Every structure is written in structure tokens, then in C-alpha cells.
């Protein structure tokens, strides 16, 4: 690709005695106005073109310092303040220190010295842009211009150097050079000379008001037009068009801030270099791990699969040649705009290739006439990952191009599901239609073009950042400046549109009535928390069980839904069990293996990182173990949850604990499905079926609940790791029918009465 295009600018500044005059009724001198405009110009250059080379020449100075004067060629009272180089803060500070002199100014001398300075700097090097900016009040009479001007115009035109003049108190119209100036006097004597000069070499003359308006306008950073890829567009095996690919849209971010050491000596740049040190998370001493002892790994479920550098290189390497291969042409309506998944690029014919331009023009026009879009395979450089792209035909400024927009693969799509919304009434639809029409940013008949053009809509964050940087650069102790009114205006709605839309606002408010619900009132009164009993009743409704007052503490409730996470049953037994369970967890955690302990510490909470599935809140404990990232506790969690289910069934008095066991089984099935442990779950479920169908009436009743919930085997439809066909899973409950009747005779009642007093001791 071509190198970056260079740019050279020389600024010519008037500091003659006439610059001490007052500028109109502003209370400032012409030189102060000129200095303010010049500083705005240089500040703008530092932001939008930081690599542009800038030189400064001052004419009408109290001293003489330039190359032509040193060669005894005259040109007195002209000083070369700065030779062309990349702009910096010292350049602006040097301009800020300038003062007008008592000498007469000769603008032509300053221009000749500036042109000589530019010529010597450029030499034989290729500069894409050359320009000269003259800041003056034009008060001096220019004599002898007819002897020098023709040769100067010829060389500047040949070198394609434009001239821009910022005239203090120049007339505001280029067609009326004899009109009144901003200060109320006639046009400056040198204004006709400058206008004639600019007409011959190309450029522009700006009065001070126009210059300030232009210099204070927002600008964007200049970016060189360089191609990101040069490739052949293969339409058919017999038709290939050489093309260049350019970035059309590139997000502009805030500049990266450099870190510097405050303790560094003043004669050094103080740049800070970052060194990364890696150590083991479970090493209390924090010892560094050598590079040869480090390895990369990919996650496979909860497991880590180590990959060597050679493996990684082999996986990432590909034998893809650079290409832009057309696959198919489809109707434009089949490519919805919402699926475009990246930045926009522009595909143009190879420059200076007439045959490529003709072929591209014919292809683009054919696509436009048929309203079709090309789908292509794009590899922007050798061995890069291939992309699927859409090529949309466009003709801009008489040039035919293709706009390239990346298309997503199947893995890039996200499945989104939203609850259905109530159907709006005709009045509501009419009100919203009127609001949208009223708030339109497109100008109506006689109102001009659109109010919002992305090409002229500047990022307020970047502009505000630039404003703050300028203030702090000139004075590090200065406070942040007030927000620029233009930036503030961009952050607010258009006032006339908002005023015009007030009736539409009122209509929408009347059409959509907002009523505070009881849930909202309760949330406001109690901070959004529910009582434990409310959560328990909701859970009971979910499992279809009629709740008795003494059974409230049997319902498993997430601590996030309960008040303080405690199970305050009517009999008080819930608190006892919670405390006993916490004690059990503490004992087990104290004796757990280092891996489980590390996992618990990584989770950062007593319950969230627990390595134990207890009976107080087994579902939450089970899910917490599955969520541990730095250790694989999946198998342990599955085995413990299986044991909890068996324990609840064995120790249940009738069907009192069956609801909790059923919730545990449901959670176990979901966890095994997400963790690809279908084989183990199916083993557990088959064993549980054998236990229940061969047990008493209570267990058979529990199995009927399992069947009603549909907690069957995990099949291949649920997870690819299963060996069970969907038909087998559907027949799982049909293989053996069990009675749903639960024994309730005198013997059962006597057994219940006999064991009632031991209930607390049996349930932990």
C-alpha cells in the first residue's frame, strides 16, 4: 500500500505597526484579534492533522532573521519563527508570545520568504498538499509587485500551492472589495492585491468574521485515503476486476492517554513501560510463573484443555488466499439491513485502470437496474479468516462503487424472545403516528433539507475532550472550561420541533393511561421485598400443592426471594434446620479438599461458593456449585444432589418432603442437561424409578408426581451427549404403571402420630 501523504503549511503573520490599531468597537487591537484567530487555526491543526508540517514567518517584525536576508538579498524585518515540522504545544506558545512592532510591514516580503522556506524544506520530496496562510490587516501599500508577482504565481501554480488570506477588517464579500469594512472604514489598501493573487494561484480570502466562524466550527480528524486490501473481484472464472477496498466507516475513539512518571528527571520523557507478571492464584507468596511454565487452555464445559503454541499455530493457520469471490446474486429485499454485522467498506475499481473502471461501472449499473445484491467470500489478506459479505451497488459523484457490508454466520445470531404486548387501540396508534410525524427531523416543504446529516453531526464527547485538552495544555492549573454552547445545543432536542410537538405529547399522554398497580405500591412501601410466606405460597402454587400452616417451612424458597434468607415457619422449626445446616456446612468446609476451598473463596460468599449440597436449600447449593468457574465441582454436585433426593424420600413422613425432592430432581435434570451429564442423570433416574416402583405407597405417589412433571430421561433431543432416543424417553413412564393411592388407614395414622414428635430430629 502507498505511504502516508505528506502535507506542508507555512503561516505568514503580520506584526507591523498598523496592527496596534483598535478593531472596531471590540476594545481589542487588530493584532489581538489576529492572534486569537491564529491560535484557533493552530489548535485545530493539532487535532485534525497532527502530523502536518507547519512553518511560521512573521513580517513587520522589529528584527530580521531569515535565509534570504542572511544571503544579503534584503527582506528586512522578516523573521522565520519556525521551520516546517510537526505541530506541538511550543508552537502555540510561541505565537502567544508575539507582540506588534513599530516597523512598517511589507506583506510581499513575508510571502517571498515563506515560499523560499517551503521550497527548501520540500526539495524533491513528494508532498500531496502545500498551502500558505497569510494573516494581515492589509494596511500596507505593496510596491513593485508587478516585477515579482508573475514569477511567484507561476512557481506556486506549478507546485500546486494554494494561498489563503485571513484579512482583518477586509470586506465580507469577494465581489465588493471597495465596500465598507467591519470597522466602518474603507477596504484596506492591500485587499485588491490579495484578492487578485488568490484568483491566480487558487485559494480563498476570508474576512475576520468569516475566519472566526470557520475556525470555531467543529472539525474531524483528517484521515488519508489508503486501501486496506487490493484484490481481484472474481465475478466468473472468466471475469476478474482489479479493485481496491477502502474503509468507509471507522469509529473514532478518544485518543489513548500516555502514562508518565512524575518521579522521572526533567530531561527525560518519563514514559512508563508496562511489564506483565503472572503468578498462581492459589500461591500465597505470589511467586512469578516463568514463561516456560505457562500454557494456554480452552474451556470444554468445566474442563480446561491445554493447547501448546504449536497446536495454536496449527489451529489458527489457514491456506486461504486473498480473494473477493462472488458466490451469488440475490434480490436486495432478501438482505435485511438489521443483519449487517460490522463496518462498511467501499470497493472501487483500481485507480488509473480504465478497463477495470468500465467493468465496474457496467456491473454496478446492472445490479442497480435489476435491484440485486452480490454475496461474496472475502479474504482481505493471505491466511486471514474468510468472511461472507454483501456487495451493494452505489453510484456517487458519477463514480460506480460497491459498498461492502459483512454478513453474519449462524454462530453470530442471537435468539431473542419477548413476551407478547397488548394490542393497542386505534386511538393509541393514531396518537403515536402523529407524534412520530411531528418529531421528524426531515425538513418539510419549504423547510430545506434534513436537520440531521451524519456527515455534519460531530461527536460531542470528542469535541468536549478537545476543548478541555486545549485549556489544560495552555495552563495546567486552569479549571475545565464551560461547555461550548454549540456542544450543548447538540445534546438537546430542537426547540422548535419540541414546541410544535406539544399537542402530540398531550394526545399520547391521554391515549395511554398509567395506573399504579398494587404490586408497585407494595414495592414502594417495603423496598421491593416479599415476605417469606408470600414466596412460599407462590412456590406452592407452582408445584400444585395445597399448603397447611405447619407445612410452610417445608417449601424450598430462594434466599433472594425471602426476608433475610431465613425460613420462618409457624412452628419455628425452619430456623432450627437452617442453623443446623449452616453448622454442617461449616464442618464440611473446614475439612474439605483444597480445591473445594479455593472454589469457595473464589465465589466470595458462604453459600454461593459452598462445596456441599445440604437439605435446607439444596437447589441453591447445587446451582452455586455448578457456577464455580475456577474448579470443576459438577460431578460432586450431581452425586450430592442425588444423595439429597434419596435422603428426603427416605426421611419423609408421608409426602411432606416430596415437594422438595421433586424440586431437587427438576434442578438436577436441568443441571445435567446444561453440563452435558445426560448419561449420569439417566442412571440416577432409572435407579430412582426402581426404588419408587418397588417401594411403598408414598414412594409410588412420588413417582406419579415425577411423571406428572414430565421429568423423564434426557434424550438426544435434549443434549447431543445422550444415548437415549426420544421415543425411549417418551415410553419411560409407560413401562411400569404404579398405583397413585397413598395408604391412609388406621395403621398409617398411628404411625404418623407415633413419629410426629421425632420430626425435628429426622430432618436436617
UniProtKB/TrEMBL annotation:
Compositionally biased region (Polar residues):
558-569
Write out the annotated subcellular location.
Chromosome; Nucleus
Name the family the entry cites: Belongs to the ku80 family.
* Residue intervals of the VWFA domain: 8-168
**Keywords on this record?**
ATP-binding, Chromosome, DNA damage, DNA recombination, DNA repair, DNA-binding, Helicase, Hydrolase, Nucleotide-binding, Nucleus
Q: What is this protein called?
A: VWFA domain-containing protein
A GO BP entry is: double-strand break repair via nonhomologous end joining
The ranges of region (Disordered) come to: 554-612, 741-764
SUPFAM superfamilies (alphabetical)? C-terminal domain of Ku80, SPOC domain-like, vWA-like
Composition-biased stretches (Basic and acidic residues): 577-588
Q: Its domain of life?
A: Eukaryota
Renumbered to this chain, the Acidic residues biased-composition regions fall at: 751-764
Low complexity bias spans: 589-601
Q: InterPro entries this protein is in?
A: DNA_bd_Ku70/Ku80, Ku80, Ku_C, Ku_C_sf, Ku_N, Ku_PK_bind, SPOC-like_C_dom_sf, VWF_A
Record's GO cellular component terms: chromosome; Ku70:Ku80 complex
Recorded GO MF terms: ATP binding; damaged DNA binding; DNA helicase activity; double-stranded DNA binding; hydrolase activity; telomeric DNA binding
